[in-house]
From TrEMBL:
The lineage of its organism: Bacteria, Bacillati, Chloroflexota, Chloroflexia, Chloroflexales. GO terms for biological process: AMP biosynthetic process; ATP biosynthetic process. This is NUDIX hydrolase. It comes from the Bacteria. GO terms for molecular function: bis(5'-nucleosyl)-tetraphosphatase (asymmetrical) activity.
Amino acid sequence: MNDQPDAAGCVVYRYDERGQPLILLIHDQYGKWTLPKGHLDDGESAAEAAVREVREETGMTGELGAFVGSVTYMVQKKSKPYRKRVDFFLMHADGGDAVPEAEEGISAVAWFPPHEAQMRVGYHQIRDIIVRATKIIPSP
């Protein structure tokens, strides 16, 4: 059994002017708010893929932090059901503006306080990842 995930992403965060965390969400090709994530390339670790996907989908770079957790769900692959696993990590944003990458299917990006991010996210398992991440985001 392969222990590598199929995809990886990040809970990208920064602090507002009061030192409160903000979480970056993307508006995906299915019309839902979620976290940046994507597939692993051949020979790439989950952490490497997570950093690359954040950069490709939002233009953001940052310092990779702790592993947050995994989600699994069923997808169709070549007309067969397939269990997909996505690993998520914390990432402290370096700064600069997030930009939605239309070629990646991203129509918008925005920063939200953790509670609002949890409410906006369109996938219940991603809400759980945000809850976990909120508990381990370090103080500024």
